[in-house]
Design a protein that fits this description.
About 55% of the residues lie in helices and about 10% in strands. The protein has 17 helices and 8 strands.
Length: about 425
């Protein structure tokens, strides 16, 4: 079976009955069938957002204000799921088919695909035969997508070998070959543990979030809390970022909206003390998952890393083998800078996985491959939009399909 057919069989499937309509259309229909006053809700939401931002950004530094405002704009997305019956959630696609998840990757990677794939397609149009000039220009296109120098060199070397081995002359279908080799490169970079290391129900799982300020860490924690809660697990949050003004309030907003308890102390408190209280509270309440926020002041690198080490010690002392996950949040829009941040945090903490946020907002989505190939840390989740279910478990084949969707769909039709 060809790579494309295997990919289609695994990823595409078919839409479930609930997904025949677009989720956005279903939401609009629900609103229309309720009270007529619902039509005025957007204005109400804007007022709520403004009030929340004003509360959490009272005299703070300019940098903090920008971060808080960004977080608050994203907080509004949880309103659509508050207090909804499970049946309504399911009708809106909360329990998605393989087809729907694949479409979400395709949609979330639109900016990268429009930039990257259009250039590859232009190459294919200009070079009807595969030669050295074609490979040189392909290398440049891959580098512009932030795939990473080492990965690009490895990929083009593999492609040259395959072209010679299979005596490929034409550039027709070269996108499928590139896709197949990108998946192979990602998967051979190390053992994949994409699934969260969750303990059996009844045992506490501790997830520690790290990352610099402004990458969407708090928003991601809220989305992950909602995801775990929708899977039937009880969740608690720990507000360990006690130094950035507004950080505790932001996490509390997410806790209120998602419907989970937040353990916190006053601003400026010892983060390790917050973690100690949170672990004991989680144990006493029989919580399944405790998600811990931390500070992200990379400009104070030495102090930050010492603080993270102390937090880690406190957690592991109270819960054997914890934290069970140390997730590093990275902003995909920062490109190679995200790779530098990942290297820094890897040196200081035992990072078990990466959550790549804002992947839908960048044309340099190739950074996923660069991070995996350079650091051998699995990307566990990616942010593909602003909706609550746009935080998706990473899948290399869905990711690669998202990069080449149009060309791969066309080649599949030809094969069939």
């Amino acid at each position: 079976m060809s790579f494309l057919k295997r990919m289609k069989e695994k990823l595409m499937g078919g839409p479930s009955k609930e997904e025949v309509k677009e989720p956005e259309q279903q939401i609009e229909e629900v609103v229309e069938t309720e009270e007529p006053a619902q039509a005025e809700l957007p204005a109400v939401e804007e007022v709520k957002e403004q009030e929340v931002v004003e509360e959490t950004t009272k005299p703070v530094e300019e940098e903090t204000v920008e971060t808080v405002q960004e977080e608050k704009q994203e907080v509004a997305i949880v309103e659509e799921v508050k207090d909804e019956p499970e049946a309504e959630k399911e009708s809106k696609g909360w329990f998605r088919s393989a087809f729907s998840i694949t479409e979400k990757f395709k949609s979330g990677l639109t900016k990268t695909r429009d930039s990257f794939t259009s250039k590859v397609n232009d190459l294919v149009a200009r070079y009807r035969t595969v030669d050295e000039d074609f490979f040189e220009e392909l290398e440049e296109v891959l580098l512009q997508a932030d795939v990473g120098f080492e990965t690009v060199m490895e990929l083009t070397e593999i492609l040259r070998y395959e072209v010679q081995k299979k005596n490929i002359k034409s550039t027709d279908g070269i996108q499928a070959l590139i896709s197949e080799k990108l998946v192979e490169i990602y998967e051979k970079a190390g053992d994949d543990h994409i699934e969260l290391n969750l303990q059996p129900k009844g045992e506490l799982t501790v997830i520690l979030f790290v990352g610099v300020n402004g990458v969407g860490k708090t928003t991601t924690i809220g989305k992950l809390a909602h995801r775990l809660k929708s899977e039937g697990r009880s969740v608690m949050l720990a507000a360990g970022d006690t130094f950035r003004a507004g950080a505790i309030d932001q996490l509390q907003v997410w806790g209120d909206r998602v419907g989970v308890e937040v353990i916190k102390q006053s601003e400026g408190s010892d983060p390790a003390a917050v973690m100690y209280d949170a672990v004991h509270a989680a144990k006493n309440r029989g919580v399944d998952v405790l998600i811990c926020d931390t500070a992200g002041r990379l400009q104070n690198k030495v102090n930050l890393m010492k603080e993270l080490e102390k937090v880690h010690r406190v957690i592991s002392r109270e819960v054997p083998n914890a934290p069970h996950e140390v997730l590093l949040a990275l902003d995909a829009t920062t490109g190679q800078n995200a790779l530098i941040q990942a290297q820094t945090f890897k040196e200081a903490t035992n990072v078990t996985g990466i959550v790549l946020t804002k992947l839908d907002g960048t044309a340099k989505g190739g950074i996923v491959i660069a991070i995996r190939n350079k650091l051998h840390i699995p990307v566990k989740f990616v942010g593909l939009g602003e909706k609550m279910d746009d935080l998706q478990p990473f899948d290399p084949e869905r990711y690669v399909y998202g990069l080449f969707a149009d060309a791969l769909d066309e080649q599949l039709k030809e094969e069939e």
